[in-house]
Amino acid sequence: MGAFRKIVLAVLLAGWCFSGSPAFAEKRVALVIGNSNYEKVARLGNPTNDAGLMADTFKAAGFDSVDLRRDLKVNDMRRALRDFVDKAGDADVAVVYYAGHGIEVDGVNYLIPVDAVLDRDRDIYDEALSLDRVLVSVEPAKQLRLVILDACRDNPFVKTMKRTVATRALGRGLAKVEPNSPNTLIAFASKAGSTASDGDGKYSPFTAALVKYVTKPGLDLRKAFGYVRDDVLKSTGKRQEPYVYGSLGGDDFPLVPAKPSETGHRSPIPRWTLGATMNWHLMQGTGICGRHFCMLIQRDFTPT
To answer: Order of strands across the sheet with 102-105?
Structure first.
């Protein structure tokens, strides 16, 4: 390495270690949908409340963009997902949260807009949106894709829907899913084949637990959803068990970075954020502070 390049690198590393800019530079975006006012079946009490609470939670956690939509008709839901794909395209973390009715037909999960009629089972293809369509909307995100469904409620559409094919299966709750994209999680309010409670209060048991843990700084998402599960099991008398499908790697995946410690040092940067953070600060000409990171830099970059 030439002398000039050594000097430039030393200056950049010093800036990274001693400036006070944030250690977490990833872009995080969220789409939040709550459908309560169904036109052909009884109104659901909590989804619009739940959506508002989740949107506020993401905003308070410092998300770059939070798009809150309520009581969407089918064309509005399609448009919302289409618009969100563009936002996820330059994001590191993309989250879709949906509260409302959902249904499983022949092993495929669908989210139901407020204007759905669903007289016949085959109407589901035109009047609802598949979970696969939702997954497409978060797919462009670079680091983490998260879909949260508070949509496992007992569904009145199933009771009145006429079957056009005798062998077509109409499931209870939602069907088990296996995401194809890496670093993708799908969280159900209740595990596959079971239903969830809308709740007796202002918010559903699932969402009330979510806001306590999912955006807790530094808390790995898998552990956060474990705490959500425990809370919901307790609050529902073990009648409802949330479930998460998908997998992440060995590193921690907090949705929100850890806060600086009381001593003024930054918390260690998760390895999955390190590359993007370094690149961002190189472009911005600023740095990141943290004893752990400085030691890492010194260990890995000191010329020999």
So the answer is: 102-105, 108-111, 129-130
CA atoms within 13 A on the CB side of 36: 16
- The predicted-structure confidence for 192-220, as pLDDT tens digits, reads as follows 878 776 667 799 999 999 999 999 999 99
**276: part of which helix (H) or strand (E)?**
helix 271-284
Q: What is the pLDDT at residue 288?
A: 41
Residue 64 belongs to domain spanning = 28-247
Is the four-CA dihedral 45, 51, 56, 58 of positive or negative sign?
A: positive
Q: Can you give the pTM of this predicted structure?
A: 0.78
CATH number at residue 187: 3.40.50.1460
Residues in the chain: 304
pLDDT single digits (tens) 8-55: 444 444 444 433 333 345 899 999 999 999 999 999 989 999 999 999
Into how many domains does the chain fold?
2
How far is the CA of 40 from the CAs of 36, 149, 165, 292, in angstroms? 12, 22, 23, 58
Q: DSSP letter at 110?
A: E
What is the Rg, in whole angstroms, of the alpha carbon atoms belonging to the chain? 22
**Do 100 and 181 fall into the same domain?**
yes
